[in-house]
Design brief:
Bound molecules: NADP nicotinamide-adenine-dinucleotide phosphate
Largest sheet: 7 strands, parallel
Strand content: 15-25%
Strand order of the largest sheet: 3-2-1-4-5-6-8
Distance between the termini: 39 Å
Number of domains: 1
């Protein structure tokens, strides 16, 4: 398979690329800084794109669609955490968060769907979150973006089924990844307080390799114990 992965430079996206490459697939990675993921596998192609820059994104996507006309699937995974009381955020920060965590995925899907539908096959896998399932204090923006993504994925699944395009949403709980580097909380230190990027990658690859004609609609996975450490922002 030939699969495009956004947010490929670290965490879940990187783990998905590593698993795909280890299984003999080809991957295209999108992120702002792919230097974080040095990979000399010739089956991996890296593209530096700021997905939050919605003004430039359609032009980048046009180039990608033309460069990769026979993709099998896309893993739409890029995202950042953003937590706090709503009034703590500027209007610009609110917009930036929704632009990246929701609208950029809509743009990427919009760009590639015509080709996938024409081919009569394809798969969009979105990284949602447990925040797509329940609203929580301090999570109004992040939850709103992930709820929106979940509604988008559900509607798209119904809309694309006839064309043979599958849509999957994966909702992880706390994953031990650089996601928490800029946040003031993180999963507790015990191994049952977090899931690993590789755990999520395994589920995503399972969805991608499901028998044709079946769809893993939504997959929720989370650590068995939900211990959280607060006041731990990483020192720069
Ligand atoms: N960690 C968790 O507990 C958790 C739980 C549930 C869901 N999620 C979701 O999982 C997804 C991946 O998160 P992660 O845990 O793997 O975190 P991560 O290690 O911080 O990865 C985030 C990825 O998104 C990319 N990214 C961020 N801003 C971008 C931008 N403007 N343009 C292009 N790429 C951008 C980053 O690359 P660059 O910085 O190089 O651009 C990086 O590759 C996110 O959607 C997140 O909401 C995470």
């Amino acid at each position: 398979m030939h699969i495009l992965v956004t947010g490929a430079s670290s965490g879940i996206g990187r783990a998905v690329c590593e698993k795909l490459l280890a299984s003999g697939h080809r991957a295209i990675g999108i992120a702002r800084d792919l230097g974080k993921f040095p990979c000399d596998d010739r089956r991996f192609k890296a593209h530096t794109i700021d997905l939050a820059d919605l003004a430039q994104l359609p032009a980048h996507l046009q180039t990608l669609v033309a460069s990769y006309p026979a993709l099998d699937a896309l893993v739409l995974n890029a995202g950042v955490g953003c937590f706090g009381s709503l009034e703590q955020f500027s209007y610009g920060q609110i917009r930036a968060l929704i632009d990246l965590n929701f609208t950029s995925h809509v743009f990427v899907a919009r760009a590639f769907l015509p080709t996938l539908k024409k081919a009569g096959r394809g798969h969009l896998v979105f990284t949602g979150s447990e925040a797509a399932l329940a609203g929580t204090a301090q999570g109004s923006l992040y939850c709103a973006a992930k709820f929106a993504l979940r509604g988008f994925a559900q509607a798209l699944r119904a809309e694309c089924a006839r064309a043979g395009v599958r849509v999957t949403l994966v909702n992880p709980g706390m994953v031990q990844s650089p996601f928490f580097d800029e946040l003031d909380f993180r999963p507790g230190p015990a191994p049952d307080n977090y899931i690993l990027p590789a755990d999520v990658a395994e589920v995503i690859v399972q969805a991608l390799t499901a028998r044709d004609g079946t769809v893993l609609d939504e997959i929720n996975l989370s650590p068995q114990k939900k211990v959280i450490e607060f006041g731990v922002r990483k020192k720069k």
